[in-house]
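Example record

The entry below shows one chain as it appears in the dataset: sequence first, then structure tokens.
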Amino acid sequence: MGVGLTLAVAGDTLGFDFLAYHAAATRVLHGQPAYDMSFEGAGGFGLFYYPPTFIPLVLPFGLLAPGLATWLWIAGLLVAFAVGVAVLPVGRSTKWLLVLVAGLSWPFVYAIKLGQVGQLLFLLFAIGWRWLDTGPVLGAAGGLGAAIKIQPGVVLAWAFLTRRWSAVVTGGVVLAVLASLATLLAGAQAWTDFFTLIGRVTDPITTPDNVTPGAVLYQAGVARGPAALIQYASMALALAVFVVAALRMAPVPSYLVAVIVSQLLSPILWDHYALLLLLPVAWLVDRGHWWGVVFVVATPWVAAGAIPPWIYPVAFWGCLAAVAIIGRRTAGPDRVSSVRAALASRVDAMTTCRFQDRVTERAPDAREDGAWGSATLVCMRSRSRSGSSGTSIAGVVRECRCA
């Protein structure tokens, strides 16, 4: 309902951001520079300041009329979100709850109205989570995310720190291919224009409506110097949490830390970026921490005009702290490797279960990562296929290892 009402009253602001993508694609198709260099700050209508690697992905929409292209893009965003929720390695009840709270979330419905790329990034992050141990899939998702916006490239840095070399290589190949296409389509000048433009319009402190910690303090009356100091301290701390999480925590929570940090490292943090908090919230809820929904429901669309700016950095940092603290209780990356994600992607391929005493070494980690229910289901299904029905559920859970 929130999405429908927002689109119904959008008026001329419908597709505000997408129309900038469309204009850039149209310029490239007509042999003109991709970037309008007349902008002096972020937030203006028509500003396209995404990397050149995004141009090949959005170029086909430049062949369509703006109105039709906008509605097709918005429909694609809704489909992307639905597919992203479907592939998340969480329980069915968690997925339905996620859809419900998304419909209540102002960042979510606002991103749809603007035609922003948030739902696309949600899908790519969700794919990376689901196939966390499938290097080419993780790398392709990370590479496409970095091609759309620079910040999701943190996923490839996470893959590097966790020694997922096939993901790093695949992500690099994806970026190299799109960079080559962008250069062929928009010319080498697009790269110099892009770096010049982002250096000009991405002030993390004075940009209006920006919700980085430093910008919020500046808007509240704090002098630019102290606000900038706090902003850069926030970015440095977020980076430190990211590195420690990648090296010391279990894969799933450390990956979700990377997702959150990818936004905290951005010099421009618009309020609709908070829709990506749906991913770590899904993990928290699936582990029984229902209070995690507060990071999303704290910004409802019914109170859109009354949400104080400080809510957004508090939500990002609160969610980061929750995932880091709870995730720290799980085993490190050398002992367990995203059990739930691996099981979720292999359920249909499971045909047999073997009894091994050594499985008890990983059982506590599987339970801690929220994968116990999936492991039980798969083992029982495979057990029934094999024709053995005399073993109790507890016995299967304790002794059975999926192969």
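Notes for this example: The first helix runs from residue 2 to 8. The beta strands are 353-355, 400-402.
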